[in-house]
Design a protein that fits this description.
By secondary structure, the chain is an alpha/beta fold. The chain has one domain: Rossmann fold, CATH 3.40.50. It has helices at about 1-10, 30-35, 50-65, 80-85, 105-115, 150-170, and strands at about 20, 40, 70, 90-95, 120-125, 135-140, 175-180, 185, 195. Strands 3-4-5-6-9 form a 5-stranded mixed sheet, with helices on one face. The structure holds ligand NHR. Ligand NHR binds near residues 72, 104 and 130. Ligand NHR binds near residues 72, 78 and 104.
Length: about 200
């Protein structure tokens, strides 16, 4: 979230972050956003009797700001089909693996347990099927000898901080389209793959 806000501040960026909303009212990112002059709001899922009720309240808050896009960043609640369809084509997530491998949670531990030599992150449109939407961009990093889930997560996070702002910029520039077979095309045909240099 901070990487997206910082990127949008850059010169000649065609986007701004209009609000930051978290399902955890104690999230440090909310205070950080307020400090940056961005409206920020906590909305605890624990205050709602069902996922549907929470998602409806969440949508009501989001719609106050009339955003063109809703970008999930560390958002940990599975969203209902109703919420996803309301923002169809405008709802994006970054997942810490090279999808379609390692959907779900604990992706870095899964990568180490499987022994893959390359790992990374995926920026994708959100669909009702978890971690399955059309891929906008990916960032990859090597798995190194001696890696722990924590050291690997840190390396992947660097890739996330490159891939997500890049994808957000393509979206804001109106360059991202979905094909009939649900693949992403980006006008100008950028590579859409970010490879981190490791010293
Ligand atoms: N919702 C839909 N419909 N589709 C996706 O692809 C979604 C989504 C909501 C969040 C982010 C995803 C990730 O990047 C995301 C993608 C949380 C869970 C999860 O199981 C799964 C995937 C993601 C985020 N959440 C538990 C739940 O019961 C709670 C886990 C917790 O609180 O620690 O919602 O990884």
């Amino acid at each position: 979230m901070q990487a997206l806000v910082r990127a949008c501040r850059g010169e000649s960026w065609p986007a701004e972050v209009v609000a930051v909303i978290s399902s955890r009212p104690d999230a440090a990112g909310l205070d950080w956003a307020r400090g940056q002059g961005i409206p920020a709001q906590g909305l605890s899922h624990k205050d709602y009797p069902s996922r549907e009720a929470f998602d409806q309240a969440l949508a009501a808050q989001i719609d106050r700001y009339r955003p063109d896009y809703v970008l999930l960043a560390g958002f940990m609640r599975v969203l209902t089909a109703g919420f996803v369809s309301r923002y169809a084509g405008r709802l994006v997530n970054i997942h810490p693996s090279l999808l379609p491998v390692f959907p779900g949670l604990h992706t870095h531990a899964q990568a180490l347990a499987t022994g893959v030599r390359v790992h990374g992150c995926t920026v994708h449109f959100v669909t009702p099927v978890l971690d399955h939407g059309p891929i906008i961009a990916q960032g990859c990093v090597p798995v190194l000898a001696g890696d722990t889930p924590e050291t690997l997560a840190e390396r992947v996070l660097c890739a996330e901080h490159t891939a997500y702002p890049a994808a957000a910029r393509w979206l804001a520039e109106g360059r991202v389209a979905l094909t009939a077979d649900q693949r992403v095309e980006v006008a100008g045909d950028p590579q859409r793959l970010f490879m981190l240099e490791i010293q």
